[in-house]
Amino acid sequence: MDNGIARPVPLSDLGQAGRAPKGARSLGVVVSAALHVAALLAFAWVQTPPPPEPDAVAMSASLVRLPKPDPDKPPEPVKPSPAKAGGRQSAVRPARLEAPTVIVPAKIPKPDTSDLLSEAQIAGASSVGEGGGGGGGGVCDMAKLVQRALRKDPLVQAAVSGAQRTGKAMMVWNGDWVKSGDQDGKGLAAVRESIMWEVAFAPEACRRQQMHGLVLLSLSDGYTRLALGSGVWRWSDLLTPSAMARER
After folding, report:
1. What Cα–Cα distance (Å) separates residue 121 from each residue in 39, 126, 143, 175, 229?
2. b/e string for 124-139 if b means 16 or more Cβ within 10 A?
3. Residue 170: pLDDT band by 50, 70, 90 thresholds?
4. In sequence order, which ranges of 51-132 are alpha helices (DSSP H)?
5. How much is the pLDDT for 108?
6. Closest Cα to residue 156, out of 240, 217, 243?
7. Nearest Cα to 167, choosing from 90, 89, 222, 85?
């Protein structure tokens, strides 16, 4: 009976009345997820703007009506247009052919061997101790004295080696001092001075001794030989320049 006093509602009935249906709750979850995804996509679109489109370049085109070629007339050759003064020339240029360089080998002068003795001259010359030169013995054996002085002088050995006459037979004096190879001056200076020194300090009788033909003086190696004399001569003639040119 309703007497104006409200009856309390059971708690079970309140829970059922405030609880939404199961289908409505599932729909709400789907809608919420969709809204979150849409928000993320919108945020990403705002952060990375699309690349700007390239500006369109206006191009103009014109139509040209070309004449039809005449089949009976051969085509004319195309002539290159001359380059204008001050204009830009083509970067490609024809290769310039240059004349080949001709290398002429230097002419090597032939060495002077006019001071070297021939086999016939060596065979006809007399050696030291043979006596063929005249007066070859005793105190006045000038050939032996001069040969001994040449063998003891180291400057003589160096001069002969510098003239590339080691082991050869060379003419030193034939009435005048003979130039040896490419050496400057007449005769080898060291050889000439050694011979003249020995002759100058020899007794006068020995210096005046008459000689005939060539006399060979050998150095210490036994193969290098120096020749003195021509025709009839004296040892004193070596102290006078061009002695054979004057009459005795």
Report:
1. 127, 10, 18, 16, 12
2. ebbbbeeebbbbbeee
3. very high
4. 119-124
5. 73
6. 217
7. 222
Q: Which residue has the higher pLDDT, 146 or 60?
A: 146
Beta bridge partners of 226: 170, 217
pLDDT digits (tens, 9 = 90+) for 112-169: 788 899 999 999 998 887 654 444 445 689 999 999 999 999 999 999 998 889 999 9
Q: For residue 237, which of 195, 191, 189 has the smallest C-alpha distance?
A: 195
Instruction: Report whether 169 contacts 122 (CB < 8 A).
Output: yes
Q: Which two tokens stand for residue 100?
A: 């080949």
The sign of the torsion formed by the CA atoms of 216, 186, 239, 154 equals: negative
Could you give the CA distance from residue 93 to residue 203 in angstroms, rounded to a whole number? 90
| Angle of CA points 110, 112, 118, to nearest 5° | 120
CB 220 within 8 A of CB 132: no
Position 16 scores a pLDDT of 47
Pairwise CA distance, residues 196 & 201, whole Å: 9
Query: Which segments within the chain are labelled E, that is strand?
Result: 126-127, 169-173, 210-212, 215-218, 225-228, 232-234
Strand 210-212 and strand 232-234: the pairing is: antiparallel
pLDDT band at 179 (very low <50, low <70, confident <90, very high): confident
**And the tokens for 74?**
């051969």
Q: How many CA atoms lie within 13 A of 40 on its CB side?
A: 5
